Amino acid sequence: MRYVYLVSIVGVIGLIALLGPRGSVTTRPPIEVFPDMDRMPKYHPQAKSAFFADGRTDRLPVEGTIARGTYYEDEYFATGKNGEAFGKGFPIDVDNDAMARGEDRYNIYCSVCHGAAGDGDSMTKKYGMLTVANLVDQRLVDYTDGQLYDVVKNGKGLMLGYADRLSVEDRWNVVLYVRALQRAANGTKDDLTPAKREELGL
Amino acid sequence: MSNVFPKWSNALPLKIIVFIFILAAAIVSGVTYYATPSYTRVGYQPAQPVLYDHSFHVGELGLDCRYCHSAVEESGHANIPAASTCMSCHSTIKTDSPLLEPVRASFASGEPVPWVRVHETPDYVYFNHSVHVNRGVSCVECHGKVNEMEIVTHDQSLSMGWCLDCHRNPEEHIRPVDQVTNLDWVHPGGKKGQIEDGLKFVEEWKINPPQSCSGCHR
User: Is B159 within 8 Å of B36 (Cβ atoms)?
Assistant: First the structure.
């Protein structure tokens, strides 16, 4: 009996040594102990497909079609252009909500390169993004709203477009916030109310 | 006849019973400890086709989670970014790095980079990212401190009991919505403040996490 215990203990210690504690880092895919119906023959987003020739479950729109809900009758709203020329003005409601949303989106997608203040001073600049535009520069202040919208959507120079990550509405919100940054960076004392000017002694 | 069984065999049945009990206890503890996602899933760190370092891109550069996982607020599925997202910067930076070759190839051909999925719930679980992140459940609650991971590692068990821990006591885990992607955020008031504010959010946002089967299984 003593030997049975000895062999069992050695066995258990061996097993523990082999299995390791919870949370050990491993590249082996997780074992599914009770696999029941964990994996069903159905499709998940961005997963592999055995059916389609390109091996993807995600399908691209059929050529010559667009997805429902992505057609906008208002050409200026969708492209920033009236005919061939870039337009002026905002086709969205300009209010605090739009500005807050624009700030939120700007800080996610734009500030990484253009900087939180829009002046191009950002973390990625330190790592070699040297051609990033200074958004508060007069050159870009002179851009029309539609032109700025077009840059957000389609990119310009080395910048790729953000159409895949920003909805049409959000692109306009971002343009609105960029306008606010430009205003903040290029403000003069004339922008202040007379009371404030007096308060600051200007 | 008296010599057929030696004297020591008298105690044998008892010894065998005791041994069986000990063995059973060992097996039960073993299964409890190992046959659960806390053991089988946590620590999973697959080798990825590109050594994307979250600790650098998020921790050092300060990229928001949504810069790449852009659909997470609208979609049930938190998307893996397209190669064009990587190329937003890498068309300028490290343009000839051999490590980025799969990304460049994908960008040129349109074939996806074969990323290996780390977190995968069973197919009968219908987890929706958007409802969680829009109600103050941070990424860190389920994915751990990805902003400190060089290689993404499975951090939490994602077992059903673990889901229910939060569904039963949501106030311990929800935070202001604007801090959801700030993985280092902790409530400045500590545990007590977290629960106080958590209860407030639960009431204000009418949070009622389902605990019935059909909440997550259909």
Answer: yes
Q: What is the pLDDT of residue A129?
A: 84
The secondary structure of B13-64 as a DSSP string is HHHHHHHHHHHHHHHHHHHHHHSSHHHHTTTB-PPPSS---HIIIIIIT---
Stated length of chain B: 218
A196 Cα to chain B: minimum distance (Å): 32
Q: What is the pLDDT of residue A36?
A: 85
Please tell me the class of the A90-184 domain.
Answer: mainly alpha
Q: What one-character-per-residue DSSP string does A58-115 give?
A: S-PPPTT---TT---S-HHHHHSEETTEE--S-SS--SHHHHHHHHHHIIIIIHHHH-
| pLDDT range class, residue A198, cuts 50, 70, 90 | confident
Across the interface, whether the CB atoms of A38 and B124 are under 8 A apart is answered yes
Place of tokens 């089988």: B40
ipTM over 0.90: no
* Maximum pairwise Cα distance, chain B: 95
Among B44, B84, B88, whose Cβ lies nearest the Cβ of A26?
Answer: B44
Which one, of A155, A159, A153, lies nearest residue A132 by Cα?
A159
Q: What are the tens digits of pLDDT across the range B152-181?
A: 999 999 999 999 999 999 999 999 999 999
Angstrom CA distances, B192 to B144, B195, B198, B205, stand at: 22, 5, 10, 20
* A130-157 tens-digit pLDDT: 889 999 999 999 999 999 999 999 999 8
Q: Cβ contacts (< 8 Å) between A22 and chain B: which residues?
A: 33, 38-39, 42-43
Residue from B63, B66, B61 nearest B78 by CA = B66
Sign of CA dihedral B106, B110, B111, B112: positive
Residue of B nearest to A19 (CA): B34
The DSSP letter of residue B207 is: -
Beta bridge partners of B140: none
Query: Residue A20: which residues within 8 A CB-CB, separation 6 or more?
Result: none
Q: Is B215 a residue whose pLDDT tops 80?
A: yes
pLDDT at position B35 over 70? yes
